[in-house]
UniProtKB/TrEMBL annotation:
PANTHER family: UROPORPHYRINOGEN-III SYNTHASE, CHLOROPLASTIC (PTHR38042:SF1). It comes from the Bacteria. SUPFAM superfamilies: HemD-like (SSF69618). This is Uroporphyrinogen-III synthase. It comes from Salinisphaera orenii YIM 95161.
């Protein structure tokens, strides 16, 4: 029986320290994986401020981790980090990582695990007089913190890491685009860097790839002026297995 992704060449752009499990899942499904991260994850610019933010977060009523990178960085910067409030992760992978690191249960929505469904939880509906800590990277979206503040919470954003766009030269980029059938991006920041790298010179080559994205929001970002030949696909959770499932649904048609 032919593997579901036999013949599929996948550019995996996930940061190097997080890519191997995903690459193994793709290769087990028959894909050829091109490992080339679009972002590197680095310590925050102000490490002492990050540690002070984590101390404050330990006393917060609600603690929300926006990514697995935020979870990893929290315990790396403060190994004895012990948040006492209700824990939340934005997305299933973040929730899983937070639960494993803290040893405590993490509140989760039922059904599809999106930020919108997370914010629909009853425990986040009214936050007057409550303190909320959002564990995240530097910059990025403020929608989550803004929503919590609008619901009455005193919100502290704790910047625990920063993302830096990888330096991929034009010749290397051209080879990647020529060799790949699909490209997996795992954040809006990664996609923005990819589009910047491609520019006008490589736009057509990028457009022919099947984009695998982590959310509909990122797909909407991808659609702005790019003109993809094939419709981007969205994974239902951040995992290598979910990428395999999403790609397998479309790969048979793509290779015909």
């Amino acid at each position: 029986m032919r593997a579901p992704l036999s013949g599929c060449r996948v550019w995996l752009t996930r940061p190097a320290h997080q890519a191997e499990g995903w690459a193994a899942a793709l290769e087990a499904a028959g894909a050829t994986v091109l490992r080339e991260p679009l972002l590197t994850i680095e310590p925050p610019a102000d490490i002492e401020a990050a540690r002070a933010g984590l101390i404050a977060a330990e006393a917060a009523d609600r603690i929300l981790a926006t990514s697995t990178n935020a979870v990893d960085a929290a315990w790396r910067l403060k190994p004895d980090f012990a948040p006492q409030g209700t824990l939340y992760g934005v997305g299933a992978a973040s929730a899983d990582a937070l639960e494993a690191a803290s040893g405590r249960p993490v509140a989760r929505p039922s059904g599809a695990f999106t930020s919108e469904r997370l914010l629909a939880l009853e425990s986040l509906a009214s936050l007057h007089g409550q303190r909320a800590a959002v564990l995240s990277g530097e910059g990025g979206r403020t929608a989550l913190a803004d929503t919590l503040a609008a619901r009455g919470a005193a919100v502290t954003r704790v910047a625990l890491y920063r993302r830096r766009g990888a330096d991929i030269g034009p010749a290397r980029l051209a080879r990647l685009l020529d060799r790949a059938d699909a490209v997996v991006v795992t954040s809006g920041e990664a996609l923005a860097h990819l589009l910047t790298l491609a520019g006008d010179d490589h736009r057509a080559a990028l457009a022919r790839l099947r984009l695998v994205a982590p959310s509909r929001r990122v797909v909407q970002q991808a659609d702005q002026g790019q003109g993809w030949t094939r419709a981007p696909v969205v994974v239902d959770r951040m995992s290598g297995e979910a990428v395999v499932t999403a790609l397998a649904r479309v790969w048979r048609g793509d290779r015909q």
